[in-house]
Amino acid sequence: MDTMVVKPERGQKTVWLLHWTMVFVPICLCLIVLILVNPIIFGICTAVWVVFMVPFLLWIPAYFRSLEYAIAEDVVKGQRGVFWKRFITVPYHKVTNVDITQGPLQRSFHVGTIHCQTAGAGGQQGATAELKMEGVGDLDGLKEAIMERVKGTAFSRPTQAQREVGGLGEAQTQSAILRELTAIRELLEKQAGP
Questions:
Q1: Sheet (strand 86-91) strand order
Q2: What residue spans of 84-169 are helical by DSSP H?
Q3: For the segment 61-73, what is each residue's pLDDT rounded down to a tens digit?
Q4: Rounded distance, CA 75 to CA 185, Å?
Q5: Neighbour-count burial for 9-29, b at 16+ CB within 10 Å, e otherwise
Q6: How many helices (H) and strands (E) does the chain have?
Q7: 171 alpha carbon, distance to own chain's centre
Q8: What is the tens place of the pLDDT at every residue in 103-146?
C-alpha cells in the first residue's frame, strides 16, 4: 500500500480563529466599558490585549501549516509545532483503538480529529491518544484506512516461534513443543531444588 500524506483542511484554521474570537469578544466588550470609566485604563488594557492577541493570530496559521500526517505501510505518523517540532510515530501493531471526535464548529466546517490510541494511552475517548490527527476531512475514510492497516498487521507478521515452526509438519511441530516444554520443566525442577 502507498503512503497517504494527509494535511488538515482549511476549515480547521477557521474553527481555531472562531474559538479565539469567542474568547476575545467579551474582552473587547469589557474594554469598551472601560473607555467610559477611565480612558487611561482603557489604553493600558488595549495595549496588553494587542500584545497578546497579535502574536496569537500569527501563531494559528503557522501552527496550521506545521501539521502533517502520514498513513504509511507499517506506521501512522504525525508532525506539528511552530517553535518546538514534535514528530510522532505509532506502529499499527500497537494501535488498540481509533476514535473520531467532532465539535459543533468542526461539523459545520466538515473537519474533525482522529485519535490513534495505544494500550499505554488509555482513558476517555481521545483524551490521551498517542496521535491526534487534527482538522482532517473524510474522517470515516481515514479511520477505515488506518483500521485496515491495523487489522492487516495483526496477522501478516509471523512471530519468531511461528517462523521456526512454520516449515514443519504437524507431528514435527508437536515434537518441538514437547521438547521445549520438557526443557522448561527440567529448568523449573532444577531451580526448585530437592
A1: 4-6, 68-71, 75-80, 86-91
A2: 104-108, 139-156, 160-165
A3: 999 999 999 999 8
A4: 39
A5: bebbbbbbeeeeeeebeeeee
A6: 6, 7
A7: 46
A8: 999 999 999 999 998 876 555 554 567 889 999 998 999 999 99
